[in-house]
Amino acid sequence: MTVTYELIKVCKQTGARLGVVHTPHGSFETPAFMPVGTQGTVKGISPEELKEVGAGIILSNTYHLYLRPGHRLIQSAGGLHRFMAWDRPILTDSGGFQVFSLAERKDITEDGVTFRSHIDGSKHFISPELSIEIQNALGSDIMMAFDECVAYPVEYEYAKEAMERTTRWAERCKKAHKNTEKQALFGIVQGSMFEDLRLQSAKDLIEMDFPGYAIGGLSVGEPKPEMYRILECLNPVMPKNKPRYLMGVGSPDCLIEGSIRGVDMFDCVLPTRIGRNGTIMTSKGRIIIRDAKYAEDFTKPDPDCDCYVCRTFTRAYIRHLLKANEILGLRLTTYHNIYFLLNLMKSVRQAIIDDRLGDFRNEFFKSYGYE
Predict the structure, then answer these.
(1) CB 245 within 8 A of CB 212
(2) Residues 6 or more apart from 213 whose CB is under 8 A from it?
């Protein structure tokens, strides 16, 4: 297969997996957090800086790149890697989550989904086949099958209908995939908060023999214990020789809890979004560095962090930049937040090696303020 998973170790304390995902553009260790480059760029940070902070893979968004600048333009530029000057692995989502957030139920048919662009209101239609065509043109290493992501809460009957449609669409996606030698297509497990639907979805997709599997439809507003319950339900049945990707999850607690429940890959806009709003993650929890109390605080942003930002600048200086609307302020908070989560996952991997991820979880949660 184009993308393969190598299982290195299982934590004796928690059952968490340490592994390596191999792709045409290089390999990365798991569990891994993927910074989100929605429109072919991780907001506020350059490709070289992403390498500096340790990003092994990034995510880009099919829906956004389809609307602007267009997948054919990117294809003519030599593909997304060349277009954005990133030579490491890229994962593209199917566009499903964004499309369904814009569509009404009446706009969802067996053929696909009709929606209006968030940019100019123009009308568009995406089918499983078009989603694959777009992703083939982008040239990402890992592609996602087009799926129906339902809201939370949802009635059982509609969740079942959407799950079954997702399975049928996955079959169509697999048939439409034209670049199997260079791109791997993952199926997406759906079924909302209903364990029987999740298990059926996983069974059906596993029978199709995808090179990897995503878990969608979580982190959509449900309580975190509900998310963990579904992960615990799926963990025993997911193939041990293939990567598992939990979509749209990136808070520190969920990264650790997800890893404990067998997840290998995560993504979320959280570090960049809160960074642009003046919030940074530290070893002692989040701080809103824009607040007045940091105006004369000449200490490191995070006393326990050794990233470029924390080695070089003070809280007072970063606050000044943010208050003055200087672009550098947003870049520094973004850089630090991405580094923080990538470094957290490095610590998770080490804790798996040391067979103490449960202990690490308790120590981190106490320090960060979760407990």
Answers:
(1) yes
(2) 186, 187, 188, 189, 202, 205, 206, 238, 239, 242, 243, 244, 245
Are 70 and 124 in contact by the 8 Å Cβ rule? The answer is no
Which pLDDT score is estimated for 371?
Answer: 73
Spans of the chain, pLDDT less than 70 = none
pLDDT digits (tens, 9 = 90+) for 221-277: 999 999 999 999 999 999 999 999 999 999 999 999 999 999 999 999 999 999 999
Rounded to the nearest angstrom, the gap between the alpha carbon of residue 341 and the centroid of all alpha carbons in its chain is 12
Strand order of the β-sheet with 4-10 is: 4-10, 17-23, 26-30
pTM of this prediction?
Answer: 0.97
d(CA 50, CA 160): 40
User: Shortest CA distance to 233 belongs to which of 223, 225, 222, 241?
Assistant: 225
CA distance 4 to 212: 8
Tokens of 366: 């106490």
Helix (H, G, I), strand (E, B) or coil at 245: strand
Longest Cα separation, the chain:
61
Residue 206 φ then ψ, to 5°:
-60, -35
State how far Cα 276 lies from the chain centre: 18
Per residue, what are the HEC states of 336-363?
HHHHHHHHHHHHHHHHHHCCCHHHHHHH
The dihedral over CA atoms of 355, 361, 363, 366, expressed in degrees to the nearest 10, equals -170
Q: Mapping DSSP to helix (H, G, I), strand (E, B) and coil, where does residue 132 land?
A: helix
DSSP tag of 14:
T
Residue with tokens 């706009």: 107
Q: Which tokens hold the place of 37? A: 């480059």
Residues with a catalytic annotation lie at 93, 267
